[in-house]
Amino acid sequence: MRGTGREGQMSERTVEAPRPTLKTIAFMTGLGVTTVSRALKDAPDIGEETKRRVQLVARQIGYRPNRAGVRLRTGKTNVISLVLDTDQQIMSFVSDIIYGISEVIADTPYHLIVTPYSRSRDPLEPVRYVVETGSADGVIISRTQPNDPRARYLLEHGMPFATHGRTDMGLVHPFHDFDNYAFAQIAVRQLAAMGRRRLALLAPPTGLTYYAHTVDGFADALNEVGATEVSFNAVSIDHTLEHIRGRTTQIMRRSDRPDGFVSSAAAATLAIVAGIEDAGLKLGRDVDVVSKQSSDLLHLFRPELLVVNEDFRLAGEELARSVLGWIGGKDPSSLQTLSVPGAVDTR
Amino acid sequence: MRGTGREGQMSERTVEAPRPTLKTIAFMTGLGVTTVSRALKDAPDIGEETKRRVQLVARQIGYRPNRAGVRLRTGKTNVISLVLDTDQQIMSFVSDIIYGISEVIADTPYHLIVTPYSRSRDPLEPVRYVVETGSADGVIISRTQPNDPRARYLLEHGMPFATHGRTDMGLVHPFHDFDNYAFAQIAVRQLAAMGRRRLALLAPPTGLTYYAHTVDGFADALNEVGATEVSFNAVSIDHTLEHIRGRTTQIMRRSDRPDGFVSSAAAATLAIVAGIEDAGLKLGRDVDVVSKQSSDLLHLFRPELLVVNEDFRLAGEELARSVLGWIGGKDPSSLQTLSVPGAVDTR
DNA sequence: CGGATAATCTGAAACGTTGCAGATTTCAAT
DNA sequence: ATTGAAATCTGCAACGTTTCAGATTATCCG
User: Fold this and answer.
1) Cα(B167)–Cα(B176) distance, rounded to whole angstroms?
2) Which of A105, A264, A270, B116 is 20–30 Å from B259 (CA)?
């Protein structure tokens, strides 16, 4: 349109008005910068008319406070950091959580930044980074452990956070959790109601808090319905699908094989079913499987599967609300939510 | 441990040394702040020994430049913004892309911030926000369209970016794309080699660039192998799984039903197979399906499925490298990568 | 009318960083 | 010795914001 041809990557920029600042508004209104600043935040010592005038102008010219300025002056970053485990295999939940968080912070000044870490390295590292550099006002962590060094560290350093999953350290902090005790319980009850008596559990990895919840719910319900457990302990949903599949086949070839499975993850369930069929057995006839899932795919896979839904988007929303609440000064103990599973969906 | 009990949420904080700044180092070394600043960035007008001294001290006390300070002064944010469509259903790719990006920026000063938007709203909104507020040094966008207003806008405003998928506007910018033309082509060839002659394509949504690529590859290969197309145009992978399933059943009940499918997404493939079976037909006998997948699940679902893998983590890595490259001054035309699919995995 | 009080506004300083325009010192060439 | 250049270092100012400690004006009371 304009220019001679190769202007170089950055130069075609049209002449733009520089971004308006407080100074701009101050000049336009004839007021001092301080007054403008205070007027915009509705301070009591500014005249009503002045406030309206300033706010009108600000809106008209599309004023947006400069984040770096605010951050430098006040230390407030308006950032939430989501700490993610990069070498996780079960990834489906990540996007849902992110979407959930996004939705909640959409009409706040907050930004979401993703802070990855590798489980093989120091799990404290990302959290320490955030605290030391003050790069966020709040943190969300997942894969929570009963005695979670990250939660302890954040608490000690006064950094607001929320955990996905509970801890068990006698410390109070916001969390959101899915009631995995209830999940295992209703799963077992469902299987028992279908006449299944020898049940195996594919549990979460042992280190995480919800491992214990799941195992407890499973055990208590077994007891309640008078069924017995077929040990499947050596495996968890963190193992590769190949591994789960192989171990399932093994266990299904034994004479004392289970006639029911409870699976804590959808992907793992695919492997379990494959393993069952590798052993020449049939789902729904020889064995039933209750599985958690976070998106509605398992019924397409095998209609016979029994599923319980876990909503990770909701988790993201709750987690975001919790951190924001804590940052906003609410009592952490009031920011704890537990999502109870619905009934088993047998389709 | 210490204290009387209820100290309130923020107060347990141990007395911490304030974060070191340039001033701290200046004081410790007896130098001026400017000198320290310049020494840390290895400027030519600072003595060698001084540099070593300053850098040593900086490392010892764990100096980390204050991002707000840098940003305020220089405008450099050290942030990459990933613009995401929040009401996307096929989500599996999100986490992979994020992990890929994270991996690349891990040993750079960059942070990744996720900027969500709802497709129902103005797609230009998030991109405009980033440009207007200068909240990132570079942007990554997905769901790229042939004539993409976001890419055009970013280009016009001199904001470095990379697109996941190509555009077709005669403008040059970095991108990473999967070769969907090749995918459709080898899929068709594979089906033809298995004796399938009446093929249907479950394509990407029409608005996106890779729709055309896929359709072209499909058509060209059909022509090459002398097979015919059974139109499946009214559906795309963006439809609900229920919808795809129903339409598949319909088409499979027709007398001129297809004996082969090419599917552009794994989740959709589940629905296609369900639809096929709803119609009383059998995968591998009556019909074969070639599907793209991004994680290795489809073979667990039905071993008969033919799959081609698309690596979204790689995409994330390439996209991150591209934006960083552009920010770093590289020629955009040198930052375009195309990922060619491997052979069809028949297992 | 003096003096207090309230209401409203304001400049200066500071947060941490970097670019600019010197300042100081050293040393070689004249 | 004088000049000049090179090498090395440094104050100051500015980025945009908020807090602090007033300043100014208007209003009210006795």
Assistant:
1) 11
2) A270
State the pLDDT at residue B53: 96
How confident is residue B332, by pLDDT bands cut at 50, 70 and 90? very high
Burial A55-82 (b: 16+ CB within 10 A, else e): bebbeeeebbbbbbebbbeeeebbbbbb
Question: HEC string of A35-104?
Answer: HHHHHHCCCCCCCHHHHHHHHHHHHHHCCCCCHHHHHHHHCCCCEEEEEEECCCCCCHHHHHHHHHHHHH
Nearest to B297 among A67, A71, A270 (CB): A270
Nearest-CA residue of chain B relative to A62?
A: B132
> Do the strands A138-141 and B336-339 form a parallel or antiparallel pair, or are they unpaired?
unpaired
pLDDT tens digits for B34-50? 999 999 999 999 999 99
Spell out which residues of chain A touch residue B96, defining contact as CB-CB under 8 Å. Answer: 91
B95, A99: Cβ pair inside 8 Å?
no
Confidence of residue A41 (pLDDT cuts 50, 70, 90): very high
Cβ separation B64–A132 shorter than 8 A: yes
Segment B180-208, tens digit of pLDDT:
999 999 999 999 999 999 999 999 999 99
Is the CB of A12 less than 8 angstroms away from the CB of B155?
A: yes
Residues of B in contact with A62 (CB under 8 A): 132
* Calpha distance A162→A326 (Å, rounded): 9
Give SS3 for A225. helix
Cα(B249)–Cα(B277) distance, rounded to whole angstroms? 8
Q: What is the residue whose two structure tokens read 């040094």?
A: B137
Q: Whole-structure pTM over 0.85, yes or no?
A: yes
Length of chain B: 347
Cα Dmax for chain B: 89
DSSP reduced 3-state for B64:
coil
Q: Where are the beta strands (DSSP E) in B34-181?
A: 79-85, 111-117, 138-141, 161-164, 175-178
Distances (CA, A) of A154 to B32, B71, B76: 35, 26, 29
| Cβ of A287 less than 7 A from strand D | no
List the nucleotides on chain C closer than 7 A to a protein CB. Answer: 7-12, 14-22
Which helix (H) or strand (E) segment holds residue A177: the answer is strand A175-178
3-state SS assignment for residue A297: coil
Give mean pLDDT, residues A232-250: 93
Helix B33-40 to helix B48-60 angle, to the nearest 10 degrees? 90
Q: What is the DSSP string of B140-168?
A: EE-S--TT-HHHHHHHHTT--EEEES---
The predicted-structure confidence for B137-184, as pLDDT tens digits, reads as follows 999 999 999 999 999 999 999 999 999 999 999 999 999 999 999 999
Q: For residue B1, is pLDDT > 60?
A: no
Helix (H, G, I), strand (E, B) or coil at A290: strand
Structure tokens at A140: 């969300």
Burial of B241: CB neighbours in 10 Å, binned 0-12, 13-18, 19+: buried
Would you say the C-alpha torsion B155, B157, B161, B167 has a positive or negative sign? negative
